[in-house]
């Protein structure tokens, strides 16, 4: 299975006959890199290890950016099933676009190893923070749980179950700061269609749901794990404990836990109620969407302050954003997902999460309307939001997704950085000739879609000033800077 020729699974689609129908998403640019991994990255310190390999800090040689690489040794995972599982993990990660889920950049393969390159978070595992703090206050615990449930609601909305939620698989973006977490490790993630179920006992003893042990379960197994995590954050010990896995799993099967420990005397009844709703049999366990509406979270999340000026500025950026050429859309998506740093988007992410009132990781018309009505009144807001949806919702799924939001609201100075534009140009200029051809566009943007050949020539023609059928760097920069 050569990474240079690995085909990533795509949903069957009708043949695309017009450039406007071509969907450019973050997934478009998560590609197999044909170069040697060590040509592109310097390998740094180990960030963790597992049965099949390790995670290391890596530095991009050209940009000096720090990232994390999940490295799998082939001699420890030789079976076809293991290889298939790895590609499934890559496919799941490629499809995800949420502020609290780790972002994947690219992947490599050589004769000895597979490499998956992702965001690097400097704060370490939530597990380490638990060991250091012992327990968290209710406000801090609610902040963590809200982000985790938002990620889970988003996954479940895409019919994906994570199946191994635990503090070791939750990273802090910055050391000691729990305001921004990232969910990682999708090696056991699986699609479970609505109304369907799956078999196979996967998970970690402390966090595994009882129905998983019984042999048939669905996505609600993740909600049980969330219940265990919030129990530990508040009390400093697990609800189901024992001297070995067998003792722990016996207690899990009974769904028996209590709040009798001294630690619970100062914890609110609302917190206990939410935990009880999560640590209940699957048939009565609440969903992620329901948990996000629980009074314990609702009350505490309303206290999170985002500057009104920052919200107002972001709304204004949404109002002034306009669709442009398909090439500029592609470049903007590439820069937003592959170039800008977590620091560049930190404030915008907070605004996004504030506007995402139901916490599902995307903005609906109704959520946008709530904010625009405050600015201009209902009638004008309805008209404005309708226009924004047409301009910003470039994949036409009826929502403003996270990357669409960042792309529309990021300041021009960051988006139009000369370094970012050169990286984008080099991405398309596959042969290093100094110009971009229709064939090179096709290699990057077509993915698994069936597209008529004329589309690529048309995309070039729309922005080709000198009419030579190709785009040079000067034309490329003018396209982006002039918002053609």
TrEMBL record:
SMART domains in alphabetical order: EFh, S_TKc
Domain named EF-hand: residues: 343-378, 380-415, 416-451, 452-484
Record's GO cellular component terms: host cell plasma membrane; motile cilium; plasma membrane; symbiont-containing vacuole membrane
Classification via Pfam families: EF-hand_7, Pkinase
Listed GO MF terms: ATP binding; calcium ion binding; protein serine/threonine kinase activity
EC number: 2.7.11.1
Keyword S-adenosyl-L-methionine among UniProt keywords: no
Keywords attached to this entry: ATP-binding, Calcium, Cell membrane, Cell projection, Cilium, Flagellum, Host cell membrane, Host membrane, Kinase, Lipoprotein, Membrane, Metal-binding, Myristate, Nucleotide-binding, Palmitate, Repeat, Serine/threonine-protein kinase, Transferase
Cofactors named for this entry: Mg(2+)
Compartmental location: Cell membrane; Cell projection, Cilium, Flagellum; Host cell membrane; Parasitophorous vacuole membrane
Record-listed ATP binding positions: 70
Mode of membrane association: Lipid-anchor
Catalytic activity: L-seryl-[protein] + ATP = O-phospho-L-seryl-[protein] + ADP + H(+); L-threonyl-[protein] + ATP = O-phospho-L-threonyl-[protein] + ADP + H(+)
Gene3D superfamilies: EF-hand, Phosphorylase Kinase, domain 1, Transferase(Phosphotransferase) domain 1
EC class: transferase
Domain of life where this protein originates: Eukaryota
Homology family: Belongs to the protein kinase superfamily. Ser/Thr protein kinase family. CDPK subfamily.
Name of the protein described by the UniProt record: Calcium-dependent protein kinase 1
Native species: Stentor coeruleus
